């Protein structure tokens, strides 16, 4: 079992890629805290995992709130005894052009996608240090590396922030044996991208940029996240794992 004995918290774990990671981590023997604003989906997934031999708990978490992060990490440790892995996965996607954007739209996306990662990392570090180290996996995007005309400037900026924040944290906390890496998925079939699949014109534009010619499945990203979470990646920190069907290769 690749995560035997480990306790993991996955933000945005109630659906999409976060849910795929929660299922896979539980299969690999991790104890999993599913932390999300979506109560119903989160509790359903918690029940599914527990009924099929895994160990999971749902914890309400809005990643923009520092107090809720502190509570969520306390609750995880109270339930499972420690924290070894944090997946900063919660995120929102938006579209549109710079000059049409309101400051409120910018601030909201930055609060969820970038500040949420900072807060989770900040409050996970002391617990990981107590466990002798840990692994933090930050879900950025291929759009944290290259831009696309239809996607919003605040989405790109937030994902670019996650990419470099990952490296800053990695070098500061290598001394604590805490590894920090970013994952850069391309288009993946989740509720977040459903609008791009439903719009024939937009779907064509996305597909045209993917050498493998299709969107990825959440499990294809979860496999990479599992590797970074596990001790198999013990010599990796500050690195970028690109899982994008070849989008950034051209
Ligand atoms: P999704 O919308 O299916 O899931 C996102 C999850 O984050 C949801 O469960 C949602 O409730 C949760 N969330 C949103 N705001 C939150 C908040 N304030 N506090 C706590 N939880 C919150 O999307 P997904 O496609 O599974 O996306 C997961 C991550 O992957 C995101 O960070 C996204 O930006 C990134 N990503 C997605 C794609 C893609 O094509 N789907 C590509 C690259 C990166």
Task: Walk me through the structure.
With 250 residues, this protein is an alpha/beta fold. The chain has a single domain (7-241), classed as NAD(P)-binding Rossmann-like Domain (Rossmann fold, 3-Layer(aba) Sandwich). 46% of the residues lie in helices and 16% in strands. The protein has eight helices and seven strands. It has helices at residues 16-27, 39-51, 66-80, 103-130, 153-173, 194-198, 200-208, 218-229, and strands at residues 7-11, 31-36, 55-60, 85-88, 134-139, 178-185, 240-243. Strands 3-2-1-4-5-6-7 form a seven-stranded parallel sheet, sandwiched between helices. β2 (31-36), α2 (39-51) and β3 (55-60) form a beta-alpha-beta unit. α1 packs across α8 (218-229) and α4 (103-130) packs parallel to α5 (153-173). The longest helix has 28 residues, at 103-130. The chain is globular. The model has no long low-confidence stretch (mean pLDDT 98). Bound molecules: nicotinamide-adenine-dinucleotide (NAD). Nicotinamide-adenine-dinucleotide binds at residues 11-12, 14-18, 36-38, 61-64, 89-93, 112, 139, 141, 185, 187-188, 190-193.
